[in-house]
């Protein structure tokens, strides 16, 4: 729809920008604490908060500290927390068995949060990269990332998370057929209320660098993820992937990374109208933090502006490491 515009001077578009009150009145998109999912890194141990050097302000937390973080988030009004495990090179294996161990750090954290902080949703990550000796999201056979055997393992991983009490399962692996396989397995296991937030349009991005440091995958990763994650030049393929995942039973979909892919967010929103999320990934976070620490930008303002951009692009919510900081700023008003 084209707005009707009388010619100048009848139309002076600056009129509706003149005061804070009028600007607030005509504002189309507003960020609220309801928009955030907070990604948190879980590690072994007790009483540990280990800083992630490439992500200033982000920590690897032991389970007890993750529970504290969940409580803090819930008190700020954040609706969901998303868990990612850190695994050192010594605990990584070729068979990735740790991924579906009911007592791995993620599953222990899910149970502990569910017991202590009932008013926050728990989301998880489903991919083998955090347990794999070679850092890939699927099994590697003769240098190839194999699909169907990986899907079987991912289903086991997802079931273990659902058994532990996860509310939202987030498959980030980009294997074909995993959403349908997980949905069928959940139905068979009585987990019909477990949601799937599919990382449907996930690009092979250099913006994931700091995350791979955070989960211990950087040192492990051999080669790249170009045979399963998307080519940054493609847009139509993202629509096909989202349509496919929704048809297989995903409840919500994600575009990842975030800011460089806002065009994909907008198309996803307009094409499918499904609950649409973006992941403001580690590299996006690190760039803003680095520039802010150098005094080159106003960190708080850039944080809020970047998060608002996702709302403008049609997203219902954002996975962001800024969640608690932004929630605190919003609470101040
Ligand atoms: N399956 C792994 C996974 N899940 C979330 C991220 C990235 C998140 C971030 O960069 O903040 C990645 C990294 C990757 O695909 O290599």
TrEMBL record:
EC numbers, comma separated: 4.2.1.24
Catalytic activity reported: 2 5-aminolevulinate = porphobilinogen + 2 H2O + H(+)
Biological process (GO), any one: protoporphyrinogen IX biosynthetic process
Pathway stated in the Swiss-Prot or TrEMBL entry: Porphyrin-containing compound metabolism; protoporphyrin-IX biosynthesis; coproporphyrinogen-III from 5-aminolevulinate: step 1/4
GO MF term list: porphobilinogen synthase activity; zinc ion binding
Keyword Lyase: yes
Keywords from the UniProt entry: Heme biosynthesis, Lyase, Porphyrin biosynthesis
Keyword Lyase among record annotations: yes
Active-site feature positions: 202 (schiff-base intermediate with substrate), 256 (schiff-base intermediate with substrate)
Source domain of life: Bacteria
GO cellular component: cytosol
Pfam family, one: ALAD
Assembly behavior: Homooctamer.
Family annotation (NCBIfam families): PRK09283.1
Sequence similarity: Belongs to the ALAD family.
Protein name: Delta-aminolevulinic acid dehydratase
Provenance organism: Pseudosulfitobacter pseudonitzschiae
Lineage: Bacteria, Pseudomonadati, Pseudomonadota, Alphaproteobacteria, Rhodobacterales
Annotated gene: hemB
């Amino acid at each position: 729809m084209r707005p009707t515009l009388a010619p100048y001077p009848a139309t002076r578009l600056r009129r509706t920008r003149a005061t804070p009150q009028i600007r607030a009145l005509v504002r189309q998109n507003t960020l609220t604490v309801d928009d955030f999912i907070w990604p948190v890194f879980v590690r072994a141990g007790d009483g540990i908060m280990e800083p992630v050097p490439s992500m200033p302000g982000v920590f690897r937390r032991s389970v007890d500290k993750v529970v504290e973080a969940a409580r803090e988030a819930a008190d700020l009004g954040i609706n969901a927390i998303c868990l990612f495990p850190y695994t050192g090179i010594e605990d990584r294996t070729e068979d990735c068995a740790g991924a579906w161990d009911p007592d791995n750090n993620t599953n222990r954290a899910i149970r502990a949060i569910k017991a202590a902080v009932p008013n926050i949703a728990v989301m998880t990550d489903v991919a083998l990269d955090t347990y794999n000796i070679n850092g890939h999201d699927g099994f590697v056979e003769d240098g190839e990332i194999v699909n169907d055997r990986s899907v079987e393992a991912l289903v086991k991983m997802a079931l273990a998370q659902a058994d532990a009490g996860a509310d939202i399962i987030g498959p980030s692996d980009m294997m074909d057929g995993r959403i349908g396989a997980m949905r069928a397995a959940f139905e068979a296991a009585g987990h019909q209320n477990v949601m799937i937030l599919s990382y449907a349009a996930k690009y092979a991005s250099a913006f994931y660098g700091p995350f791979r440091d955070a989960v211990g995958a950087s040192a492990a990763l051999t080669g790249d993820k170009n045979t399963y994650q998307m080519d940054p030049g493609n847009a139509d393929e993202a629509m096909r992937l989202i349509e496919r995942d929704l048809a297989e039973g995903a409840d919500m979909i994600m575009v990842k990374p975030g800011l460089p892919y806002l065009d994909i967010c907008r198309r996803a929103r307009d094409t499918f109208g499904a609950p649409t999320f973006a992941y403001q990934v580690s590299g996006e976070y690190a760039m803003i933090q680095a520039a802010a620490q150098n005094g080159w930008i106003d960190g708080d303002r850039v944080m809020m502006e970047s998060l608002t951009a996702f709302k403008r692009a049609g997203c219902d919510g954002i996975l962001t490491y800024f969640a608690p900081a932004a929630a605190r700023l919003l609470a101040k008003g």
